[in-house]
Specification:
The chain is mainly α and 52 residues long. The chain contains three helices and no strands. The longest helix has 23 residues. It is elongated, with a radius of gyration of 18 Å. The model has no long low-confidence stretch (mean pLDDT 62).
Length: 52
């Protein structure tokens, strides 16, 4: 737990990025899911094409 506290102080600069990431994830969770599905969709769609 002490390491987390020390790291927290070291990541003060990253705090802003963390907040932005959290806000984006909470505000637009569908965007992340869509991006993940969009990345997996072409792979799954291309898999049967290569096999066929």
């Amino acid at each position: 737990m002490t390491k987390v506290a020390i790291k927290n102080e070291n990541i003060t600069s990253f705090g802003g990025i963390y907040i932005i990431f959290f806000v984006v994830f909470q505000t637009s969770p569908l965007v992340w899911v869509g991006d993940f599905m969009s990345m997996q969709e072409p792979r799954i769609l291309e898999n049967p094409h290569i096999n066929g």
